[in-house]
Amino acid sequence: MLKTLSSTVLLALCVSPGWAQTTPPAADQPAEPPKSGSREVQGRAEENAMRQAEDAFGTSVGRETIGLYNSSSVRGFSPIAAGNARIEGLYFDQVWGLSSRIRRSTNIRVGISAQGYPFPAPTGIVDYSFRKPGDAARLALVTGGDSYGAAYAELDGEAPLSRGLSLGYGGALGTNEYANGTDSRYRNAALSLRWRPVAALELVPFWHRSETYDDEKAPSYLPRGSALPPRIERRRFNGPEWADYRTTAMNGGLLATLGAGQGWMVRGGIFRSTYADHRAFTHLLTDVTPDRTGNRRLIVDPPAENSSTSGELRATRTMAEGPRLHNVHLSVRARDRQRRYDGSQSFDLGRTPIDARYDAPQPHFAFGEQTRDRTRQWTGGVAYDGRWRNVGEIGFSLQKTDYRKRLQKPGLPLATAEGKPWLYNATAAAHLGRDLVAFGSFTRGLEESGVAPSNALNRNELLPAIRTTQGDLGLRYALWPDMKLVATVFDLRKPYFNFDAGNRYAQLGDVQNRGLEVSLAGRLGPRLNMVAGAVLSRPRATGEGVRLGRVGERPVGMSRRSAELNLDWRTPWLDGLSLDMTASHSGAITATVDNRVALPARTLVSLAGRYRFTLLERPASLRVAVSNLFDTYGLELRGAGAYDVINGRIASTYLSVDL
Fold first, then answer.
1. Which residues neighbour 112 within 8 Å (Cβ) at sequence distance 6 or greater?
2. How far apart, in Å, do the first and last CA atoms of the chain sit?
């Protein structure tokens, strides 16, 4: 399958990132790593998500994350489950996410920011910026912990080995403590090289491995009838203590950039992502009643694996014509994903108080045969993008994808599925004035649906690929040079998967989410930065189940409103000291398929302070934060009708030093 990456080149669109009129790099030169002082900074002590965010739609830098959306939720859906991850803009079929050992930052590309990427996806794009080794020696230490008991230490470095060759390395170890009383330990390490044998060629191989162990499994609470579970006590784990699982994950690959001359640039990436459960558990408390009792059930899984080899090869031709710039991109993407899972054993442990300690000895495990599936897909297309300085932009693309899946369940015939749809998108933008841009797009995509959740009858079953569509229209207005307002109306449609009456996770119909999203980001003054945003939407499910009254018309897990305000203030009385706050609001979230239960609306507030100083003549930063300042109680949805508790008030601190 992946031989196609090195033997076939098809046409595809790559719209230039963003809407600023900037001069592109010379076509025969690889892009340089970001410079200190830009939004993408090199030093760990300089990391600050609020000051580096370009909008309110989702930014992660180091250990800090802000924004309306994240990699698991964009406009009500998961871009990672949909297969919309990118490394430096190149296609990446993610099995395990990139850690800060090799990831400099993560941005959620949606609306206007997504139009700058090849083949914009209906559920948005998770865009990873890679931590490339630079030409100067660097070493950074980050260490910290929180009031729950977590503690960690991270070390990241860069070292030039010779002219044109640099090494990147990093490692971390730590412990996690969670609101449900469980804990875990982890360690990870990474290596990368940046080699420029000639000025026009850059090669970046990398490797990252992560281990999580002694990870206890707390229960999910599934109440009887149409109700939320009784109040769950935080920081209390009732066992069983032997239900610890261990996982090993790895990401590795190669990024390559070649300036071929005469306006041509060739970029490629091939990636290997794996995740292995050495032993896994699902812990359920079902039929929970107000008297605080429930049926305890434990599902034990034998070793399971999920792995994918993926990548993209892209050639770009840039042609300048006075104030106009024409881009043609030649690209092919491919992936080969394999999974081994199931063979689980279930233990019904009887009806017990949900607060009771469970100390029964570990039973003997007798696992069954496992299911195997394999998904192969390649995609190629043709597109054009034209930009006219201070006038506007227009682009279109056409893709052809070949999707094939094989599923082998024990004792059943081989099941296969395939599809070869045409995919397309069109984008346009017009400058209505010096500070005002109108934009719009329409996209048709093929996306993964993820897997059935652990509390479903068909748990772990790979769900089919689905056709999705999205249209949006919006405006971007520069209130002043350092403050941008973006407002977008969107219409996103895809099949609706959730639990049916038999507890099987399957397609129940279709879902449409229409809404308005607003972002306001930039400087309010010389000392004050703001990143604020809101989403107002109207998600609706349709289909036979809705018509018959078995399925509610509000999709599970979605809210009609959310908002977030982030402020960062640099104090005048002490140089290097800044104070920041985050207030995030979520409306009621539909919790059951029949729409009879919803998680109530809640607002969470966090306060923090950061002090930048020099430690032994080296840049350093100390950050202290208090999350959920008012200790608001709330539940997290773990699937339709399944719940866990969110974090209470928690204080954390960490120290970053660029050695």
1. 19, 429, 437, 439, 474, 476, 486, 488
2. 45
Helix or strand holding residue 547 (H, E): helix 544-548
* Strand partners of residue 313: 268, 332
Instruction: Give the span between the Cα atoms of 313 and 425, in whole angstroms.
Output: 20
> pLDDT for 542-578, tens place per residue?
988 888 788 899 999 999 999 999 999 999 999 999 9
SS3 string, 68-110, reads CCECCEECCECCCCCCCEEECCEEECCCCCCCCCCEEEEEEEC
Tell which residue, 453, 143, 141, has the closest CA to residue 284.
453
CB-CB contact of 378 with 334 (8 Å) = yes
Q: What is the rounded radius of gyration, in angstroms, for the C-alpha atoms of the chain?
A: 25
**The pLDDT of residue 231 is above 50:** yes
Which of 9-18, 489-498, 598-607 is most confident?
598-607
Token pair of 10 as six digits: 């098809």
Comparing 55-69, 230-244, 284-298, which segment has the lowest mean pLDDT? 230-244
Of the candidates 135, 132, 69, the residue with the CA atom closest to the CA atom of residue 103: 132
**Contact by Cβ (8 Å): 173, 143:** no
The pLDDT of 90-115, averaged and rounded, is 90
pLDDT at 26: 36
User: Residues with Cβ < 8 Å from 617, sequence gap 6 or more?
Assistant: none
User: Each residue of 121-158: pLDDT tens digit?
Assistant: 888 899 999 999 999 999 999 999 999 999 999 999 99
Q: Alpha-carbon distance 110 to 128, whole Å?
A: 14
C-alpha 192/C-alpha 190 separation (Å) is: 7
Residue with tokens 């289909």: 543
Judge whether 564 and 581 are in contact, CB under 8 Å. Answer: no
Q: Provide CB contacts within 8 A for 163, sequence distance 6+.
A: none
Contact (CB, 8 A) for 75 and 490? yes
Q: Are 10 and 381 in contact, with CB atoms under 8 Å apart?
A: yes
Asked if the bond preceding 24 is cis, omega within 30° of 0, the reply is no
Cα gap 502→525, rounded to integer Å: 57
Distance between CA atoms of 301 and 138, rounded to whole angstroms? Answer: 43
Q: Are residues 117 and 129 in contact, defined by beta-carbon separation less than 8 angstroms? A: no
| Size of the chain in residues | 659
d(CA 645, CA 163): 53
| Contact present, 401 and 421 (Cβ < 8 Å) | yes
* Dist. CA 222–CA 238, nearest whole Å: 17
User: What's the CA gap between 220 and 296, in Å, rounded?
Assistant: 10
| Long-range residue pairs from 627-630, CB within 8 A, at least 24 positions apart, any chain | 627/651, 627/652, 628/604, 629/604, 629/605, 630/605
Interior/surface letters 185-215, b for 16+ CB within 10 angstroms, e for the rest: ebebbbbbbbbbeeebbbbbebbbbbbbeeb
**The pair of three-digit structure tokens given for residue 310, joined into one six-digit string:** 């993926």
Average pLDDT over residues 25-48: 50
Q: Tell me the two tokens of residue 184.
A: 């875990």
Residue-wise pLDDT for 504-545, tens only, equals: 888 888 999 999 999 999 999 999 999 999 999 999 999 888
pTM of the model: 0.89
Does residue 586 or residue 121 have the better pLDDT? 586
